[in-house]
Amino acid sequence: MSRNRIRESLEGYLFLLPNLLGFLIFMAVPLAISFYYSFTDYNLFTEPKWVGLANYTKALGFTTNVESYNAILASGKSWFSALGALIQPNDPTFWVAFGNTIKYALGVLILSVIPAFLIAWLLNSKLRGMTVFRAMIYIPVVASVVGSSLVWFWIYQQQNGVLNTVIRWLVNGLNALIFTPLGNPLADPLIGWLVTPQWALLSLIIMTSWSTIGYDMVIFLAALQGIPTHLYEAAVVDGASRNTILRKIVVPLLSPTIFFILVTNIISSLQIFSEPFIMTQGGPANSTLTIVYYLYQKGFQRFQMGYGAALAWIVFALIFLVTIIQFRISKHWVFEE
Amino acid sequence: MKKRTLFKLLSIIVLGSFVLAACGSPAATEAPVATGAPAAESVTIRWRTRPDNQAEQDVYQKISDDLSAKLADQGITLVYDPAPVTGYEDKLKAEFSAGNAPDIVWIPGASTADYAKLGVILDLKPLADADTSFKLSDYYEAPIKELEQGGHLWGLPRDISTLVMYYNKDLFKKYNVDDPAKLAAEGKWDWENFERVAKELTNPTDKTYGFSMSNWWGLWGYFVNAGGGSLFNADRTACAMTSEGSIKGLTFMRKLFLEDKVATAPGVEGGVGETDFLAGNVGMFPNGRWMTPGMRANAKFDWGVVEMPKGDVNASWLFWGPYVISAKTANPNAAWIVMKELTSPEVQAQVAALGSNIPSNKDQAATDAFLNSKPPEDNTPFVTSANYAQAEIPLFTGNWGDIVNGIYQPNIDNIFAGKMTVEEAAAAICQAADPLFIK
Amino acid sequence: MFLQGERTSIFSKVLYYLALSLLGLLFLYPFIFMVASSLKESPEVYSNILSLFGARLRFENYHTVVTSVQMGKYLLNTTIVTLCVTLGQIVTSLLGGYAFARLRFPGRDIIFRVYLGTMMIPFTVIMVPMYKMMLTFGWVDKLVSLIVPWLFTAYGTFLMRQFFLGIPKELEEAAIIDGANRFTILTKIFVPISGPAIATQFTISFLYAWNSFIWPLVAIQSRANYVVTQGLADIQGGYHANPPIVLAASTLAIIPTVLIFLFAQRYFVQGVATTGMKN
């Protein structure tokens, strides 16, 4: 290399040094250690004991149980229902957490990305006051989960919380107007938002979406504002309906942004921890147990650090895989100029 | 030029904070750790306990200050290091692994086994045996028996608390329902009458309920025990939830919630049922003595306590938690002295008088101090329950977190949610939990 | 929503503003609830949950929060930590972003991709080794542990790099011909026009540091060193029977972040959008 290039390289490293140093000491080293832990049995106090792949097989593996399979067959049931007894996961709770995490990610995707886009579409106008509304939608993003948790407890409280009070009021109103005269009054559903397994996960999803919609919306809005206005004018002049404009012009032009939002939202929602930790402690009936929270339970609360580390690496592998898949698929639908 | 200077200034600030940070700012250190000085010099013992609410917290702060003054002539200063209620044990575990846990710390009885097995708490037997003025028999047998597992002595019980039924006297009067205390005096406070009373208090128009409870092992465990069953078998090597008594107890519990509908849905630990009770909408709420200071501060209705209703048998829990000494303490002897003081009749009487738990020391003066701490007007249910209450169980034969929190609890949740029948849940619990016990 | 070239009636405009106002209020409702309930008495929160006002406005709740709970100390700790982290992150990101955007050195692109990859790593993966590291350095229970490991950020470096890539090369060319060194170019040319990016970085870092909960929970034990998030969790435990107190504390905890956001809104939104678009 020429002297100039050498000099440039040295300067490059120099500028990068604080960054790189931090990365090496506080990211690379812990990563390596955590990787090592995942192959050990470690309770934080005594020396780690090497166990090879045991943690990974415990989390991801299955055992076959031929006796119970035969027993169920003998009792007359079909082989299909016996199948559940034949192949049993080594750690059923892991798969519960896995399923919950996937559901959480999908839920946030639907309840955050789509509304964010629609709201951005709504706010994309030259009328006055848009900044105010944009701020109102965005402010939930700055609240910490701890800070807003008690409010959400009271919104979701079963007997007298905000949501159920409003629902009760609506039900009473509807009954008075329509249903009681018909002789068939509606019952007050009294939904147990945080206390029934059927609703708890959805309640947390709503809570998370509330604080992420603003962030997604702002990005969509900027992208929308980047669309040249003459495209709209031409379309309007040609008589295109708003719907067509949306589908044929806006979405394709916005596809890189949509892609970015999808990737970042999925990455962060596969790691959800604070909401289950603070609001429901993984319950009721493990319905809000996410993988990262399960990892915390095992590693930190129950002194099974090796297993916790293995779970953490499994999450990472999952995120990595999902992201790669997204990148591959993006070639088919993301419109690049 | 200006921007460049500004930037330089910023860099200096950042680098400066690096330096400052690396040196560690003295202003931000925590309370002093016990020093390794010999007994003649001044020694500081840092201690901590877990009060249920702010009112109880204030009680212990006062105890700490009083004891510090009392022990000043022995050269011992006490520093009370309060900790948050939420995540109390998470934090403690972090501190144990850092080696900077308080010298004396309270832990839930059920967790004793975990810490003992890890070797982070001191075996007090040598200290106790060497101390001629100390008598273990001064304390209630039940918690001591648990603490003496394997020929050791893992701690001294801070206090005991029995599970009793708090009830809203105003609500009972409003609906003209039999007072439970009266029923108990007549020997009629059983599950049949309990169910009846709860139904009479439940009124959909007024949105009142007969009963509510928090959803942790203390509460559903009561139903299991009172039905004649138990959580584990006698030597704690297997799950006993499928026994006839356990099933009976759980079935009754389920009936109250899902069929009679006299109860609000139990929430996750500590929150939901208590809110409704404190607001005055619920007739009965079982809890330990630790709720009393909070009731005195916040309840706006006339209330009392009564023993838990009798199922097939009388059942209650003897909740207890020991003070333990950190294995890494620099002053085990001073810590032992403080430990004895904290569990002495005098201090326990003080704590009891201020409303908190029942003394673990059998001394009569201490018990009297407790009985005279009102409201509630009649404290005897706490003490009479101690006669048949089952002591909280530290699980030396398994990991409590994995077994009870990880397996028992979610399946019980499913019973409340109506997703599993009692038989299914019990079977699932025992099937999943049995392999996890250490035989 | 309203496209250029469309003619809109007064009626649809009014409807539009109405819909947006409702939507905005819906999003703000939890905050409205927080402030309104913090001024009530405890039973009023339960019995009259939808009302905005109780019997009277109880400002003494805030007094209780500030005096009997060490909220002031927590705010101070959090401010120190947040400002240090934010400044540090801005500096390292500027330096690093410039290196990735303008300098050529061996391994540059690989290192950059690895950086991006680290954004996919859940914090919990490295939490325990980090904790052990803090033990070894003796940083447990000190504010240092909340600052030094967080002085660099992959996301911020990425942000700056994208931003710098968008700056036309002509701007530096004159300075290079004049013989200026790279540091001068960075500080005299890039930094002055990076206002939006720096403001964005500032806001993101500030929010992240201010609201971080899990790491302080693990790394800090003594109350004297708590940050606001831990303090709030603590208050929630001690006062779980007294919601207005907890809500007053939550309100106090949230005010700084809201103020920062409102103040930096203009630049911040622009900056966030830029990252989102050019990735």
CATH superfamily of the largest domain in chain C: MetI-like
Q: List the domain count of chain C as a whole number.
A: 2
Radius of gyration of chain B: 24 Å
- CATH uppermost class of the largest domain in chain C: Mainly Alpha
Structural class of chain C: mainly alpha
* CATH topology heading of the largest domain in chain C: MetI-like fold
Beta content of chain C: under 5%
Number of strands of chain C: 0
Q: Can you tell me the overall shape of chain B? A: globular
Structural shape of chain C: flat
How does this model look, in words?
The complex is a heterotrimer of chains A (337), B (439) and C (279). Chain A is mainly alpha-helical and 337 residues long. Chain A has helices at 3-37, 54-60, 66-74, 79-86, 92-123, 130-138, 145-156, 162-179, 197-225, 229-237, 242-269, 274-280, 291-301, 305-333, and strands at 40-41, 49-50, 62-64, 87-89. In chain A, strands 1-2 form a two-stranded antiparallel ribbon. In chain A, a hairpin with a 7-residue loop joins strand 1 (40-41) and strand 2. Chain B is an alpha/beta fold and 439 residues long. Chain B folds into 2 domains: 43-161 and 319-391, Periplasmic binding protein-like II (D-Maltodextrin-Binding Protein, domain 2, 3-Layer(aba) Sandwich), CATH 3.40.190.10; 164-315 and 398-436, 3-Layer(aba) Sandwich (D-Maltodextrin-Binding Protein, domain 2). Helices cover 45% and strands 12% of the residues of chain B. Chain B contains 19 helices and 11 strands. In chain B, strands 1, 2, 3, 4, 9, 10 and 11 form a 7-stranded mixed sheet that branches. A 4-stranded mixed sheet of chain B has the order 6-7-5-8. In chain B, helix 15 (345-353) packs parallel to helix 16. Chain B is globular, with a radius of gyration of 24 Å. The N and C termini of chain B lie far apart (76 Å). Residues 1-39 of chain B have low confidence and may be disordered. Chain C has helices spanning 10-38, 42-47, 60-68, 71-102, 108-118, 123-137, 144-147, 154-165, 170-177, 182-193, 195-211, 214-219, 228-238, 243-277. The two termini of chain C are 26 Å apart. Chain C has 2 domains: 10-62, no CATH class; 65-278, MetI-like (MetI-like fold, Orthogonal Bundle). Chain C is mostly helical and 279 residues long. In chain C, helix 4 runs antiparallel to helix 13 (228-238), helix 8 runs antiparallel to helix 11 (195-211) and helix 13 packs antiparallel against helix 14 (243-277). At the A-C interface, helix 1, helix 5, helix 6, helix 7 and helix 8 of A face helix 1, helix 2, helix 4, helix 5 and helix 6 of C.
